[in-house]
Every structure is written in structure tokens, then in C-alpha cells.
């Protein structure tokens, strides 16, 4: 597979600075030292899920204190899977030197302003911890203090380190030469951040602006499509029984997002070909009113998407549904959510029918989303919207009214099924996307009737409306985490005295 790689992106990391980058699942990336000896500190997350991140301690336990070709970078629990595999290392020749030093350590340390202040009494903020924080904040649109919570122990790329006979950590000059690189294969969609360490080759000083320091570069490389045809990636080894036990008993853990927790309970593929929550949705190609769609997964790549089926063109309820969905399209687009609709009618029928849809909405709409023609019912069958035994002889060989909300990783997050005689509420669909995205990013769950919930709540003996639209913290968020991240949360008093109803105000999320 490595023999046929094409560079699709390059990110230069300036000296004493950091940059973030993305690597699609099934692609490679290289950390390159273009100018010679320069140490880099690397963080990795699963793209779109900052809760799953590189776990240096577990990687060290499974491999060694230093990694090279064939070793894997593992994620934290409860996900516990390889995020990336090292496929090539031009410094593999170094091995272990006479001092006991080796290259690319997963000891986890990184230069940071806090240790500098403790040991040297110096306020220095171009260190790797700060560089990684700023890079993540800029890429994800987070406040620095929020981004800092996601920065974690690193892979020290190109760094020569070891332990002496007294078990004390030491570092020495990096042997990296101009053009040296370490290459990784992305087992999942990755978000990375790399800092060009202010210590340069780390032979002397470690955190200052005087040491010679050079840029680093990250190259993202794509293999040829046919080389990946039979590769499916590495599944998480989530212990489902443990996760269920934690959630039901209110046990506390370090899981960060609501979606992560609940989706971890569902397998990515079903055992009986039925499409269920948490499954990766079937990919397909189709003709649409916007032209050919070679791949649904590629069309929505990295985004949320709604697949919305209607039974048939030129029918009354469907006409109102497409019109009302068009009125909500801009709201959904603002949430970075794509929309595609579908029926078993051919595209030509869709195009003719759309004039009626627009006219019925008093010509005040524009249908900006594609409508898929599924005349052979292949997509409808794959998604369970129609039974495979449905035949043309039936009076209505139609799909049900279905809504599938799919996350950026192509996993089914929500499914709604309606009969032909009941039209759908578009406000509810928009609400579901808002709630899913919020839980996807935060360690919360939305209550019933959100965001109109808890319009009145008794707090400290007084009735208040301050908690209208509030959300619940997950039972897996510890009291310490809740106190630190959501200092104004309110715990509802219930007869059981179990403190599981913890509300966070809307403006704090």
C-alpha cells in the first residue's frame, strides 16, 4: 500500500509554534524534519470526538518507552483501540545507544508553563503544551481554557531520551537529519496537533527563545483506492457490559461526551443486516436532482447529514413536507448539516413535481437540497425503508416516511419512522440535530421537551426560570469535573437522594 501514495495536504509548523491537521481514516501522514534536528510534540484525537485521544501510558505498556515501525498509538479507555500505526521510521537505525537513549518516546512529558514556573520561576508560554493548546483552539474554535483540557501527554517525535542507572529521565541531542520522517497509518479519522519544540534538538535548553529551532512539516498522503478496498479499520474494544453498568448505576468515569457514551454501547455493524443506531450507514451511489452522487459517504464527508425519504411524488403530504423542509434548510446548513431526500420515483419525476412544491409554498422557497431517485429501490431496501419483497404489483410499493440523522463518522445517530398518512414536524427534526450536536460535543444529555424544559424550578426555596432550556450532566461526569467545568450547575433534590439530576444552564453549555 505504501508504494502508491499521493500527497494531498501539507502543514508547516513554524519554530516554537503549533499547528493542527486532519488525516482521513485509511490515509497516511508523515512528520518530517525538513531542516535537520528538531523535536516535535504530537497529540492525536479521533476527529470530531476529542474525548478519544492518544494514551501514551497504554502505548508504553503495550509496546515500549520508545516506538518505531510496527508499533501502534493507542487511544484512551473506554475506546481502547489503535488510532495510528507507525509504518516507516527513517531513524529506526538508531536503536538504543550506549547511554540507553532511543528515539520517539511515549514517556508522555512535554514542556509546559507550569513546570517552568515551579522549577525556574520563569513565565514562558511558547512551550509545547501552550503551542498545542493554541493550535487545537484555533482549529476547533474553542476558547483556550477549554482547548487546554483536551491537550494530553505526547509522542515526542525525533527526541532522544532515556533513563540513567538511577532511573532518572534524561534527554540528549536529536540525531534527526534533514529529510528524516516518521510515518503513520490512520486507523480512524484523526485530528492531530504538532508543536515544534522551543528546545530545538533538545541538547541543551528546553524552553527559551535563544536555542536554534526549526520548522517541522506534516504531509498527509492518500493511498490508491483499490489498495484500501478490503480494509475496514480497527474496532474499539469497548467492554460493553462495563459501560452499561456504569451508566445504569451512575458510576463516575472520564468519558467526556454524551454521544460518545451512548454510541459506544452499539456496534458499528449489525449481526442481522438490520440498520440500527450506532451502525455505519450503507454507502451508495445515486442520480439526484443535483446530478450524480457517486458516494453518499463522500458527499457528506466530515459533516452531519439528514437522509429524508418520502413515499411518492405528486402526493399531498409529501408536497408539504418537502416544502417545509426547504424552509428549514438554511437553519440546518448553519449547523453544518446537509440534507438529501429520496423516494422510489425517478429523478425526472422529482424535477417535474418540484414546481408544484414551490407553488404550494407560494413560491417563497427554493429547494436547495438534492432529491435522490431510487427507482430500483436499492437504497430504500438497504436502509430498511421498504421490504425487499415489495413488488410492482402492489398498489403502493413505496417507502415509509423515514428520517436518518447521520454523524460525521457516517454513524446513524437517530431514526424516525412515520406512516404515509402522518406528515413530519420539521421543527422537531431541527431540534434533534441541535440536541445531537450538543451531546456530540459536550458531556450532557437533553431533557424531555428541550429547550422548553424546566421553565420553572424551585432552587433554594425560590421559584426561578433561570434553568429553562437547561441540560443534564451525564452520570459519568465526576463531581470534581462538574465543579471545575460547570460551577453553576444545580442538583435536583429527589426522594432517593441520588445526585444524578444535575442541570446546567443553557448559557453555560
Automatic annotation (TrEMBL):
Q: Which Gene3D superfamilies match?
A: Antioxidant, Horf6, Chain A, domain2, Glutaredoxin
Pinpoint the Thioredoxin domain residues.
275-438
**PANTHER family annotated for this entry?**
RE64534P (PTHR31527:SF0)
Q: Which organism is it from?
A: Aureococcus anophagefferens (Harmful bloom alga)
| Residue ranges of the TM segments | none
User: What is the recorded name of this protein?
Assistant: Peroxiredoxin
Database matches in PROSITE patterns: THIOREDOXIN_2 (PS51352)
| Lineage summary | Eukaryota, Sar, Stramenopiles, Ochrophyta, Pelagophyceae
Amino acid at each position: 500500500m505504501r508504494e502508491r501514495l499521493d500527497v494531498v495536504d501539507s502543514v508547516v509548523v513554524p519554530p516554537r509554534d503549533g499547528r493542527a491537521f486532519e488525516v482521513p481514516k485509511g490515509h497516511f501522514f508523515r512528520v518530517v524534519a525538513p531542516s535537520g534536528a528538531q523535536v516535535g510534540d504530537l497529540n492525536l484525537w479521533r476527529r470530531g470526538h476529542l474525548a478519544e485521544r492518544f494514551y501514551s501510558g497504554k502505548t508504553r505498556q503495550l509496546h515500549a518507552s520508545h516506538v518505531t515501525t510496527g508499533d501502534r498509538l493507542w487511544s484512551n479507555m473506554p475506546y481502547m483501540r489503535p488510532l495510528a500505526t507507525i509504518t516507516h521510521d527513517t531513524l529506526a537505525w538508531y536503536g538504543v545507544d550506549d547511554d540507553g537513549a532511543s528515539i520517539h518516546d511515549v514517556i508522555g512529558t512535554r514542556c509546559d508553563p507550569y513546570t517552568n514556573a515551579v522549577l525556574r520561576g520563569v513565565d514562558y508560554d511558547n512551550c509545547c503544551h501552550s503551542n498545542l493548546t493554541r493550535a487545537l483552539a484555533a482549529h476547533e474554535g474553542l476558547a483556550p481554557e477549554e482547548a487546554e483540557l483536551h491537550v494530553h501527554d505526547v509522542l515526542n517525535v525525533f527526541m532522544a531520551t532515556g533513563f540513567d542507572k538511577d532511573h532518572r529521565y534524561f534527554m540528549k541531542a536529536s540525531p534527526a537529519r534533514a529529510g528524516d520522517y516518521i510515518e503513520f497509518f490512520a486507523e480512524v479519522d484523526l485530528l492531530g496537533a504538532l508543536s515544534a519544540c522551543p528546545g530545538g534538538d533538545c541538547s541543551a535548553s528546553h524552553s527559551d527563545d535563544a536555542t536554534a529551532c526549526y520548522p517541522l512539516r506534516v504531509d498527509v498522503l492518500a493511498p490508491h483506492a483499490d489498495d484500501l478496498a478490503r480494509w475496514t479499520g480497527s474496532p474499539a474494544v469497548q467492554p460493553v457490559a462495563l459501560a452499561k453498568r456504569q451508566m445504569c448505576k451512575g458510576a463516575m468515569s472520564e468519558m467526556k461526551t454524551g454521544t460518545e457514551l451512548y454510541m459506544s454501547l452499539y456496534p458499528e455493524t449489525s449481526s442481522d443486516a438490520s440498520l440500527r443506531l450506532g451502525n455505519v450507514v450503507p454507502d451508495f451511489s445515486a442520480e439526484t436532482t443535483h446530478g450524480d452522487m457517486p458516494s453518499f459517504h463522500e458527499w457528506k464527508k466530515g459533516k452531519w447529514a439528514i437522509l429524508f425519504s418520502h413515499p411518492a411524488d405528486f402526493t399531498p403530504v409529501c408536497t408539504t413536507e418537502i416544502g417545509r423542509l426547504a424552509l428549514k434548510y438554511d437553519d440546518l446548513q448553519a449547523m453544518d448539516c446537509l440534507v438529501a431526500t429520496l423516494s422510489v420515483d425517478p429523478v425526472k419525476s422529482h424535477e417535474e413535481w418540484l414546481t408544484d412544491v414551490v407553488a404550494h409554498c407560494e413560491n417563497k422557497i427554493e429547494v436547495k437540497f438534492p432529491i435522490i431517485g431510487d427507482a430500483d429501490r436499492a437504497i430504500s431496501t438497504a436502509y430498511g425503508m421498504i421490504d425487499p419483497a415489495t413488488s410492482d404489483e402492489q398498489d403502493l410499493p413505496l417507502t415509509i416516511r423515514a428520517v436518518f440523522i447521520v454523524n460525521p463518522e457516517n454513524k446513524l445517530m437517530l431514526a424516525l419512522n412515520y406512516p404515509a398518512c402522518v406528515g413530519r414536524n420539521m421543527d422537531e427534526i431541527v431540534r434533534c440535530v441541535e440536541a445531537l450536536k450538543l451531546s456530540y460535543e459536550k458531556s450532557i444529555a437533553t431533557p424531555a421537551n428541550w429547550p422548553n424544559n424546566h421553565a420553572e424550578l424551585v432552587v433554594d426555596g425560590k421559584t426561578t426560570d433561570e434553568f429553562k432550556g437547561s441540560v443534564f450532566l451525564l452520570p459519568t461526569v465526576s463531581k470534581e469535573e462538574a465543579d471545575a467545568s460547570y460551577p453553576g450547575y444545580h442538583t435536583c433534590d429527589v426522594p432517593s437522594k441520588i445526585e444524578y439530576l444535575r442541570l446546567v444552564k443553557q448559557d453555560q453549555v
